[in-house]
Amino acid sequence: MTDTQVGVPRKSLPRFEEAEGLGPQDAEFVEDLVAVLAKHGNLNRFGLCLLHDHFPLRADEVLVETNDPETRTLHAHVERADGTRHAKASQWRFVPHADGEAYAKSAAGPCQEIMLCTTLDLCPGREHERHDRRSDH
User: Fold this and answer.
1) Residue 100 DSSP class
2) Nearest-5° angle of CA 74, CA 92, CA 65?
3) Which residues are CB-neighbours of 12 under 8 A, at least 6 positions away?
4) Which end of the chain has fewer surrounding CB within 10 Å, N or C?
5) Is 46 in contact with 108 (CB distance < 8 Å)?
6) Cβ distance 34 to 1 under 8 Å?
7) Helices (H), the chain
8) Helix, strand, or coil here: 126?
């Protein structure tokens, strides 16, 4: 796994129904963000997501996304952060340091991983495909 900090408490987020999405009042913010992403060559690498909770996670848990391209579905489930085989983070949040002014530093900068994503061969039900590929070599 990457740099998920096991045991770091998470500040709760608003429930999805209560979280405020982007609106006209955010136009200047989005323009500034686009300019920063463009400056660093990251326009096609990063975007925005609405931070929200559907249910609480403990400090030792992480949300993991899996996908099935054949059925065109995505699924998210909770795993223990120190026991997951899923190693690629796909969502992060900025995490203020304890003093509330500086940001906590991690390998990804002032961020905390909030979702990991599987590679295709780790998706549930695909164990036979991994075995078949290994047998071919």
Assistant:
1) S
2) 15
3) 53, 56
4) C
5) no
6) no
7) 27-39, 127-136
8) coil
Residue 118 CB neighbours (<10 A): 20
pTM of the prediction?
A: 0.62
| Predicted confidence (pLDDT) per residue in 33-82, tens digit | 999 999 999 999 999 888 888 888 888 888 888 888 888 988 889 998 88
Quote the CA–CA distance of 104 and 9 in Å, as a whole number. Answer: 12
Long-range contacts of 122-129, Cβ-Cβ distance < 8 Å, separation of 24 or more: 122/66, 122/85, 122/86, 123/66, 123/67, 123/68, 124/66, 125/68
Please give the Cα distance from 80 to 20 (Å, whole number).
Answer: 29
